[in-house]
Amino acid sequence: MKKHESDAKTILKRLGKLSVFLKDLDADAGNDECFNYPLEIIQKTLMFDISVLYKVTNIINDRLILEVVKVLDPKNSRLDLEEGRKLRLFLDARDKRYVNEVNAFLNKKVSHINVPGMGCDVMGYVFFPQDCGGAYLFGGDFFGKEASVKDYEVSTVEIMCNFLSTLLLKTQFKQQAEYDGLTGLYNSRKIKQEVEKLLKRLERKPGISASIVMGDIDFFKRVNDTYGHIQGDLVLKQVGKILSESMREYFDMAGRYGGEEFLFILDETDGNEAVRVVERIRKKIAAAKFVQVDRSGKTLGDQFLNITMSFGVAHFDNPSDIGTMTDCIGRADHALYASKQNGRNRTTLFEEKTSHADISHRGDQNPVQ
């Protein structure tokens, strides 16, 4: 049995659409999302029985570890390719079902070796830096007994691999330029740019409101001095995760302002509502268990640290009150300073007349333990 023959003209049209699709793809989309269209092309346009996406997760001794990320298998023909499953493949390709996966990885290019009696699949290699998660493999599988994969079909997979490698590298460079590598939040430059955009919009459109928030980890220097900088980095990472998970989609954004300070924007949010949002975050951090490690980074069993944060909120709804970015961030910073002075682990709303007004309850003054 031969594979259903694909149409070269249709493939060219789909490649053109793929180019546009990848160009317009949101740079913040997950890496896996960019493979949806190519997988569809392999299964529906190149006429393979299934298409599959793997992520290279590790190499242990003589074995390649692949994670099955996505599969298009309308007839449920490959039960061994369940999404989320980890495959452990010998690098000598002794299991002929995966000979092209191993060959594509080892040679860093498209592989379409025919296995007599088992048909032929085509597998491409998509480069991605190892420190960013490693490579991807994707391609299609044909179950017939004859090798009927056309040269132009192999070339199509090669073109798609080049497209995807370029896109993933571009996305990674953009993320490195905009995101803090430790916390995963916006870096200082990017979050300041977002504040600038917000202030310009507030000036153009009277009647809308927004709040800027400064947050600072309480006694963070004590964490570093007592437990070491590896512990400090882990605290920053977990705080970043909590902040990221706490941001309301489409309304909020957060960034690492510097050191243990964080800056975030609560769009379309007045002062009182902003304080309620921040209070939920403050309490979530205070209730979290921060895993404790020794100075080499080894986890210390069931030992945890208690970490708290202090916050300052500045609200803006009157264009006449909006100054420079530095002035606006300074208001939030002034309110943060008031929180620190009044006992830490609290939220303060900036008020022009009284300099500050503390509107939250104070927690433990010595939370690091």
Word description of this protein:
The chain is of the alpha+beta class and 369 residues long. The protein has 2 domains: 169 residues, 2-Layer Sandwich (Beta-Lactamase), CATH 3.30.450.40; 171 residues, Alpha-Beta Plaits, CATH 3.30.70. The chain has 9 helices and 14 strands. Strand 1 and strand 2 form a beta hairpin.
Morphology call: elongated
Number of discrete helical segments: 9
Q: CATH superfamily membership of the largest domain, which one?
A: Reverse transcriptase/Diguanylate cyclase domain
What is the string of SSEs from the N terminus onward?
A: HHEEEHEEEHHEHHEEHEEEHEE
Count of discrete structural domains: 2
State the major sheet.
6 strands, antiparallel
Q: What is the C-level CATH assignment of the largest domain? A: Alpha Beta
CATH names the topology of the largest domain as Alpha-Beta Plaits
Defining key terms:
single chain; 369 residues; alpha+beta; Beta-Lactamase; Alpha-Beta Plaits; 2 domains; 6-stranded antiparallel beta sheet; 6-stranded mixed beta sheet; 9 helices; 24% strand
